[in-house]
Amino acid sequence: xxxxxxxxxxxxxxxxxxxxxxxxxxxxxxxxxxxxxxxxxxxxxxxxxxxxxxxxxxxxxxxxxxxxxxxxxxxxxxxxxxxxxxxxxxxxxxxxxxxxxxxxxxxxxxxxxxxxxxxxxxxxxxxxxxxxxxxxxxxxxxxxxxxxxxxxxxxxxxxxxxxxxxxxxxxxxxxxxxxxxxxxxxxxxxxxxxxxxxxxxxxxxxxxxxxxxxxxxxxxxxxxxxxxxxxxxxxxxxxxxxxxxxxxxxxxxxxxxxxxxxxxxxxxxxxxxxxxxxxxxxxxxxxxxxxxxxxxxxxxxxxxxxxxxxxxxxxxxxxxxxxxxxxxxxxxxxxxxxxxxxxxxxxxxxxxxxxxxxxxxxxxxxxxxxxxxxxxxxxxxxxxxxxxxxxxxxxxxxxxxxxxxxxxxxxxxxxxxxxxxxxxxxxxxxxxxxxxxxxxxxxxxxxxxxxxxxxxxxxxxxxxxxxxxxxxxxxxxxxxxxxxxxxxxxxxxxxxxxxxxxxxxxxxxxxxxxxxxxxxxxxxxxxxxxxxxxxxxxxxxxxxxxxxxxxxxxxxxxxxxxxxxxxxxxxxxxxxxxxxxxxxxxxxxxxxxxxxxxxxxxxxxxxxxxxxxxxxxxxxxxx
Length: 623
Hints:
Blueprint: H1 7-66, H2 88-94, E1 104-109, H3 124-130, E2 138-140, E3 147-149, E4 152-157, E5 163-168, H4 182-192, H5 200-206, E6 209-216, E7 219-224, H6 231-236, H7 243-246, H8 248-251, H9 253-257, E8 269-271, E9 283-288, E10 302-307, H10 311-319, E11 325-327, H11 330-338, H12 340-345, E12 346-351, E13 358-363, E14 366-367, E15 370-371, H13 377-385, H14 389-395, E16 401-403, H15 426-435, E17 456-462, H16 466-480, E18 485-491, H17 493-502, E19 507-512, H18 521-524, H19 542-552, H20 557-574, E20 577-583, E21 585-590, E22 598-599, E23 602-603
Parallel strand pairs: 1-10, 17-18, 17-19
Antiparallel strand pairs: 2-3, 4-5, 5-7, 6-7, 8-9, 9-10, 11-21, 12-21, 13-19, 13-20, 14-15, 16-20, 22-23
Helix pairs in contact: 13-15, 19-20
């Protein structure tokens, strides 16, 4: 006979459930309190360190006064008591009537970052995050493009152009409160040049430097082994790493090489946990560095990047006010301009940056230690003739782009105006393939090589970009008319990075960012094939190697530019890439963000030192 629950049973089980719920809630509250106490303990340790440092500075100040030192001449910020030129633009913004600190700048990445650790990360997105945390000795004025001192307040160059001496500012410190000195600059160079550290791309550049030496705590000397046209940029642009934080990884390089989020610096922002970021966090959050040494604090309390891989989802998120910026696709740009909702909340920008990068298809010439069909120069030339790049620009990017000729912008001094893009020419493409041994041998409409193997290849591309996906389908149809089978291979970003590292692909479409003067060494010099360098298409041309080396060693611009143009001619002939396009930036930015202006290097949004802010009455996020 079954026993039915009575009122006493209900009360008993109800009470037991209440006790269990109470226990869970208490455990949750204890856990929350423990986390808060841990953060408070960390903050108190940092504040205690700050107090010790301030005490030491006061004692030092007393000694200087007693010795009659002229403190004005030893000011860490200006040597003359003036605002450092690197901060003048940011300081001018703070004088605006509606200027206010606070709020968050929230943006979105179209890919999930694989790592934030310096050198281990390989993409422009992680570099963007690092730029707020790691600082350099010098920066460029975004309007004049002249060099200005950031961590350094002064520098000198020897007559032979081989020796550079930088004077650091006093009072520099990392976000954990420890001082930044010349020893940290020396350590950064030594860390990069350590073979066990996974930094082949950086070592390729810094190999030009013979030594870096600390002459005293605030003076550092860079000695170059040979002349280099970009020497000041190379030395002054080195992102300085704290010796005390990264030195332990020299004893265990593998832990550094496998790390995801080891990031600490002296910049205006910092990770809450400089060792704890991981890709599964779904984005990046930086907080204002409370110990920032600079004379102008950034306005935003936090910088946040969310990972939204789908283009349409990013637009929806922007419409909803959940992110502050949106990079528009060409086919929706005019519609968004005419959209009243978007117009009310956002301003739009359309521009071709002088440092705009280029997109390309890279033809891998060696896979699994075996030459590929793309090792043949005539095949690569044919592929470029068979791709109607102007039609891609017109129909997919609606004219908001231009056909790319080479790694050099058409407006660059490095570019030879006589070198123009190959026009689409199917007959020429098929003729070149015929010379390379390809023909439709069985009448099925598909080209075969002399062994009867069909001309078929996979094209790897990032799966989250809708325009790239459309372009790949466009290419598939276009090449099919010439008897070539293109198999699209949409791929996650982290997988693409692995494929490039292993050189395990047929062809890949990507993009490179550019600079005011582009150094070809990293992408096209044959020395960068091995060791994980960026010549991941296994391209080698000894004469091009020689020209790149000679151009890099030529300081005189008038003599250097003809060398770059000769190098461009080799790339134009060899077509290791089919250079696709340079695109305009089509950007929408929330109107509450003030002082967004276009400079010679593009929009100043997020430019360091930060020049943007949100008036207090329009701030969306509060602490």
